[in-house]
Amino acid sequence: MLSSMALRSAFKSTSVVLRECGVLSRLKGTCASLQLKHGAFTSVTTGPSHSNNETALTGIGSFTIQSVRNYARVVRKKKPVMTSQLSDLPPTMLKMEYAAVPLAQTADDLVKRLLTLELASHSEKLKLKTEQLIAKVQRDEADRSSTEVKVAILTSKIRNYQEHLHKHTKDKANKRWMLMAIDRRKKLLKHLRVTRYDAFERVCQQLGITYTFPPEYYRHATRRWLAKKALCIKVFKEVQKQKLEQRKKMKQTPPPTLAEPARTPATGTQ
């Protein structure tokens, strides 16, 4: 009885030591070996021992915990800096509504700061940029509704949407508006290219637009569509074979001869 009880207590103590050693080795240290001597269990550890890293376990010895390793962090790629279309506007330029006022040129410095683009909002700068693009392609000074002017206005909007999407990539509504504007400009450029090719070239050159031709035929190839196309080609080939065999049979068989009707002697009255 006494021997069996001693064995049970020995097995329990060994399981506790192994469990503690496994947890500590997973966390920060490694348990080198366990030695069994007269019912007492001690642990031998490798590595330098520090007073603040040692954990004393009553009855089972002490374990050394290694210091945490500082692994290198993943370097995040920086987004490329996108140049704004409003960067070429100097801050000393007057706003659009004050450009034709002669007193704005002789005003004080504080008043000039209010009248120039230095303290202007983004929408005011965008209006001025749009007017600059329109002035490059319009037919005359009063032209506000031609195809070239519409292309210039859409180009300014598209570039503004692209700058916003570069900063806020998850703005789905802005992306939808940008795609709608791109489709509208593509239709206008296509119409201008067909009707007035010289104006089309001038607009693309002045606004910095690269026109790419759409593909002649495009369809997303799905597995269902590929299987259907293969079946249609197979059926077409079988039908062609059947028609060819029918033509060969018709050429080999001679045409049927029609029986001539019996001639009756003509009886005339004298």
Radius of gyration: 45 Å
Q: How many extended strands?
A: 4
What is the general shape? Answer: flat
Number of helices: 7
- Ends distance: 158 Å
- Biggest pleated-sheet summary: 2 strands, antiparallel
* Secondary-structure content class: mainly alpha
Strand order of the largest sheet: 1-2
Q: What do the pLDDT scores average to?
A: 78
Helical residue percent? 40-55%
Describe the structure.
- By secondary structure, the chain is mainly α.
- A hairpin with a 2-residue loop joins β1 (31-37) and β2 (40-45).
- The strands form two sheets. A two-stranded antiparallel sheet has the order 1-2.
- α5 runs antiparallel to α6 (197-207).
- The longest helix is centred in the C-terminal third of the chain and has 30 residues, at 223-252.
- The protein has seven helices and four strands, in the order αββββαααααα.
Task: Give the helices and strands, then pairings.
Blueprint: H1 2-27, E1 31-37, E2 40-45, E3 54-57, E4 61-64, H2 109-115, H3 122-137, H4 147-167, H5 172-195, H6 197-207, H7 223-252
Antiparallel strand pairs: 1-2, 3-4
Protein name: Small ribosomal subunit protein uS15m
Region (Disordered): 245-270
GO molecular function: RNA binding; structural constituent of ribosome
